[in-house]
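// run 5 | inverse folding | seed 20
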């Protein structure tokens, strides 16, 4: 629950700019803040104009803006619009294209929050005199002291079906300092009920899906704005391929308690001679590890899944069945430049290790793992092998539902 501001705070630090997205969550966030005595302003962001590859075929932001304006009018709060489409393309979409071209799978929502919602948006909110910014994310924030240092903690949201802290895993202390999450302690059903009781236009509006601010897309069609189709072959790898025998959790000589980190965290290296050709595709960069749609492989006894892609030679490697060993890895590696600590006071130093909970994708349940910090980066070894560890995605680590840090999987 957000703390009610004191009378003194209401006098000097009470202006909140809410990112009104046109959805029910941000609408109720604005309502709750106003009820708690804050001076609330709504700010709507336009971040994407192009409809290439989108499944709606229209400009979804136009409808969203109408809903956001209706909510602002109902709540009797000022409403402004800002266009970040140029910056969004440069900071988020161009990064997406670059990562897919390299054969990696980015998470644009994480980048959108770091670069747009809690960077460009904060700067714009400050121009409006904001002391805080607020969003409709399902996560929580609290404040603690470490010596003379004030620490802002990012906590998981209460509703397990909507928990969104993972999307904010790249935020900094400076960004969290200004952030408020008014609905993080609530359940979605409560949000809908409040919206209906207050007769907000977004009460029955469906939640947005797909890429942040872009919407649902046909990914190959979307990526073809920059990445061209190119015929390649699909190779099926058998479950008894010898390379899987080399990934056991061996011990480093002379240290029986330390696993061979480089062995368990390295990706499998596939060669076409390890399997047989079972099909063709239009570009390896259009696929991601674990994918089973769009492969166009028929006549196989089980479903086919992508095990890996080789964008240099334009080969997609697949395996049969959900339990194929190529879909699972015991660990992962995050290069040193790609490690980010929200709690810098808890940052591991080279040679240190700690057992925490980790997730490698949104909505995945937390997985027990040990983090080993080395001079070259962070090695994460899971208690149970994880399915679909994908380069370019973010791994985020938690302690008692507090998100401590994250990094880009190498």
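// decoded
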């Amino acid at each position: 629950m957000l703390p009610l501001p004191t009378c003194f705070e209401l006098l000097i630090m009470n202006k909140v700019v809410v990112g009104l997205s046109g959805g029910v969550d941000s609408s109720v966030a604005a309502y709750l803040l106003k009820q708690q005595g804050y001076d609330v302003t709504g700010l709507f962001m336009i971040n994407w104009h192009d409809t290439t590859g989108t499944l709606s075929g229209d400009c979804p932001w136009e409808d969203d803006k109408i809903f956001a304006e209706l909510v602002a009018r109902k709540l009797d709060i000022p409403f402004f619009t800002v266009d970040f489409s140029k910056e969004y393309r440069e900071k988020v979409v161009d990064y997406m294209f670059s990562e897919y071209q390299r054969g990696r799978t980015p998470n644009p929502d994480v980048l959108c929050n770091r670069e747009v919602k809690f960077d460009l948006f904060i700067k714009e909110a400050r121009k409006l005199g904001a002391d805080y910014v607020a969003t409709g994310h399902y996560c929580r924030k609290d404040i603690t002291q470490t010596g003379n240092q004030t620490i802002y903690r990012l906590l998981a949201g209460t509703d397990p079906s909507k928990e969104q802290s993972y999307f904010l895993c790249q935020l900094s202390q400076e960004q969290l300092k200004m952030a408020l999450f008014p609905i993080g302690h609530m359940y979605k059903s409560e949000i809908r009920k409040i919206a209906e009781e207050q007769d907000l236009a977004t009460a029955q509006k469906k939640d947005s899906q797909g890429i942040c601010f872009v919407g649902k897309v046909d990914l190959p069609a979307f990526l073809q704005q920059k990445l061209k189709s190119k015929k390649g072959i699909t190779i099926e790898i058998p479950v008894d391929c010898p390379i899987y025998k080399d990934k056991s959790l061996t011990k480093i000589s002379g240290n029986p308690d330390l696993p061979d980190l480089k062995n368990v965290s390295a990706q499998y290296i596939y060669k076409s001679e390890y399997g047989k050709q079972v099909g063709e595709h239009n570009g390896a960069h259009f696929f991601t590890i674990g994918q089973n749609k769009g492969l166009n492989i028929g006549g196989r006894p089980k479903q086919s899944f992508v095990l890996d892609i080789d964008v240099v030679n334009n080969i997609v490697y697949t395996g049969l069945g959900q339990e194929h060993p190529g879909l699972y890895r015991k660990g992962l590696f995050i290069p040193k430049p790609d490690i980010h600590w929200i709690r810098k006071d808890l940052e591991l130093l080279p040679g240190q290790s700690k057992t925490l909970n980790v997730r490698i994708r949104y909505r995945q349940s937390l997985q027990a793992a040990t983090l080993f910090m080395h001079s070259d980066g962070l090695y994460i070894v899971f208690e149970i092998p994880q399915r679909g560890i994908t380069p370019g995605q973010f791994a985020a680590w938690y302690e008692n539902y507090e998100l401590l840090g994250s990094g880009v999987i190498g």
